Amino acid sequence: MSEYWKRRTLSRRNVLRGAAVGGAGLAGAALIGCGGSDDATTSSSSGSSSSSSSSSSAATSAATSAAAVQQAASAATQASTASVKRGGKLTMHANHEMRSIDPHFDTFPAATWVANSVYNRLVKYSWDLKELQSDLSELPEQPDGFSYVFKIKPGTKFQNIAPVNGREVTSEDVKYSIERQMGQEGSQEDLGKWGHRYYFNEKLASIETPDDHTIVFKTNKPYAAFMYYISNPWTVVVPREAVEAAGDLTSTAVGTGPFILDQWTKGVSWNAKANPDYFAKGVDGKPLPYVDEIEMLLVQEANTAATQFINGDFSAYATDANYVERVREGRGDATEIAVPSQFGRQMRMPPTYLDKVTGKIMDYKSYANAPEGYEGWQSYWEAGQMFDDIRIRQAMVQGVDKQQIIDLALSGGGIPMYSVIPQQYDTWALTEEVPGAEFDAANAAKLLQAAGSPAVEGPFMWASSSAGSVADQVGEIINQQLGSLPGVNLTLEPRETANYYDVTYKYRYFMSHHVPLAAAEPSENLQSYFGRNSTYYKIYNPDIWDKIDAQDAEVDGPTRQQMVKDVQKDITGFFPMKFVYTPYIYQFYDPKLKNYRMSLDRYDGSQIVEAWLDS
Length: 615
Known about the structure:
Layout: H1 12-19, H2 47-80, E1 89-94, H3 109-118, E2 123-125, E3 132-134, E4 147-151, H4 171-181, E5 204-211, E6 214-219, H5 226-230, H6 240-246, E7 259-265, E8 269-274, E9 293-298, H7 302-310, E10 316-319, H8 324-330, E11 335-340, E12 345-348, E13 352-354, E14 361-363, H9 390-398, H10 402-409, E15 414-416, H11 441-450, E16 456-463, H12 470-483, E17 488-495, H13 497-504, E18 511-514, H14 522-530, H15 542-552, H16 557-574, E19 578-589, E20 593-594, E21 612-613
């Protein structure tokens, strides 16, 4: 395999402009999760016709996406001018369970809905992630390229329940919360439970609290992603005494937020009552929230969730292409908005590491002794040495027709991806295929022949949310496409979601198609999968690691944009995997629900504070 795999000072105005999510064109943006959530074929066309078709479909998809977001923004603006109605219970839907409700432990999106109802951040973004907004703090000052100064709004208090009993929030609470998120609480052995410790760990030189209302963060070097991470749905302020009273926050919550958690029945629902002392005011001059209570129903089975929305069991619902027609027919009165998802799909082979004995870059299944920390891999798959030959990886990539997948599995409802960052983040994303990544079945066959005509036989895995899901259809289509190549014979292995992630994060697979996390902040896409200390995937290439680190420290917008695009080309060329598509998500809203739109990141639940029911 080795033959082939060879300062300026910013004003406050500039800081806030630079902190805004890049890419106004599609307005799509995402915050972070652990690996994301996954929820009849025809023969492949020729490479030339597919290329033409893909280009046309991509342009159409981009235009449709932009129009959809503009429609959503217009609807939100119209709703905000309506007459406010107060009271009532708002029932919503989450499509998966939380492992806990500790915002500094858990990385699942359902957990942030609790976190953003019960707690606050220093600052946050609007639902479309275009505008940075104040929350517990006013917008920050940046006196130099290494410092961020936040002022907590005077009189902001924790909820009037034990153990905080309505005391005022201080800068020490903020410092404690960030240090806790960084994993500075507990033993070294527990570091793995702090799912987002990399946001600030080894990035901050100091956290200073010169007075009760001022918090000063100083970074070790310019850190372009700082404002993104400080505004993240998981970066909430928690009181130390609540942690100490319960031991952690896995099943209890008390914060500064608009709702006070009432109960959580695991696997069923949670509900929260309005905080009568919340510091933020509505358009009527009275304290938010507008509704008296929220209830979140945890319905994981997609067909059941569609039925419940049609029956009026909850007020908003998001689905993929599988159920959109059914919901349209069943709820003709509902408002529908299509937006690009923040989660793309990729097809990949095993990751790589450096064999310290031979000095060669190897895949995780080809080594006589498992790399440190990956004992037991042999029992899962022992014959992956073929992927040490990059030509075989390239053949798998060129054998997949992404536009056919979009057309068949999504009925055209998707946007092609060309590298790590999904296409809707148009500030950072590539706009065309990297040479060698295009669909070309004829050349794929030639690559396999040049590699010795191997028998590419093994399991092809993915996370299957339900029988007949989009993920299942994608697996079947890719299998048919690759099955037309000489010597390729994959065994389909759809897996229950938790089991799939357990296997994939131990790198115990032959081939898979996967939904990775994605974000409007490019470091989130690059560092966590392809960087020096990557968590979810591994490639060994110090040159690429250096380039990823360099863009992380570049605060000049245009310069950083080019650096991000260049390193994506390097990743895609050095380590072939198929970046396939980002799907549309179809959102439906009950007409009685006003002044609310789901956040484009599908994690941030804070918009619910300004929703009301027009009954």
